[in-house]
């Protein structure tokens, strides 16, 4: 494995460039909770199938294809996580494999994905809390919503800056409760649904390839985020074993929940339906009591997603700062909590502030959510395509060339790029054009910043690809004495 300094053992330093984080603080369950929370399976189950149906594609088929693509990408992610523990997540793989500048562009795509996903989660959290209040007969006034949103933002920031252990446990408990609620409701709907209509929905007619690609791209939003556990590799015990297992386990668990919920909604979803899951429950007198439970599950799931997305984005910023590409303040970690406090507060302000500002100007909530989903899709698909394309080169550089990776990696990269291109082309001409345009502007601006930094400080780009290499405290002291 590559180390930070590429020096003999007797020349090892006391710390790596990623020092200051709470190294080895997290166990397997905590790391898995990070990926599961970023995926937000319960919130995705409540929101994404409806958005897929709005694209005009067969919902079940789109979700299955998206899950299959996510499994292929997860195989590549696990190959990276088994070799390089890094806080920069997938962009470190691109930097090590194909060069610093592609790595920098991948970092921008990751930030776009994490921040858009977090903003979408915040928007949906507010919506589901309002629905929950309405379902139990509580009227939420505008000032109360504003105060609640600010309190929610402050609570999230405080949880995150208290340390990764606390935020991971909060996400784990929150997502566990949400998953149990959604699974129970999904099973009830499947047991009380019409088998013939479900069969017709599963075997629905496939439209043109453009709409199918667009539907698959939106469906991928339900499965993205499983790689975010890699951003906590430095803070994980036995990261080369724990993180790959967390990536695989979180995707399988969340994928099963989302697919189960998709089947439960499939018979009532259509291109014009906007609230099929809840409408099906409301129309059944015996199931109306379950509606508040679904609202609560979705709100909790999206809350955990906001925490996890902010956590991952802050680690990416920390890694960039430690490499000298971003301002050094973003690499600051608190001495007590060992959390990247500056990055956390910046990401928290973005994730909560942007939706709050947009809603204050009276923007349509559904259009905002759709545009944020479009931004998340563009960011994650671009990052995954970069990972797939750079993975074979990274393995070769590490001295572990793989013929399978040379076949699977480029094929997966081309597929994801084609899906992204089809989705962007359809989105930019539709009602959610703001998300597609904003994504293009973001990536263009990020690339321009990278070109400027590389021109003015080429030494900063030369150091990209930092990961947790071996330090003196990790090596048997007798060996150090014998070689000194």
UniProtKB/TrEMBL annotation:
Keywords: Cell membrane, Membrane, Transmembrane, Transmembrane helix. It holds the Pfam family AA_permease_2. The chain crosses the membrane at residues 58-77, 89-115, 135-160, 172-190, 210-234, 246-266, 293-318, 339-361, 373-392, 404-426, 432-451. GO terms for cellular component: plasma membrane. It is a multi-pass membrane protein. The keyword Transmembrane helix applies. InterPro entries: AA/rel_permease1 (IPR002293), APC_superfamily (IPR050367). The keyword Membrane applies. GO terms for molecular function: transmembrane transporter activity. It is found in: Cell membrane. Its main location: membrane. Probable amino-acid or metabolite transport protein. PANTHER family: AMINO ACID PERMEASE, AMINO ACID TRANSPORTER-RELATED. Belongs to the amino acid-polyamine-organocation (APC) superfamily. This is APC family permease. It comes from Mycolicibacterium mucogenicum (Mycobacterium mucogenicum).
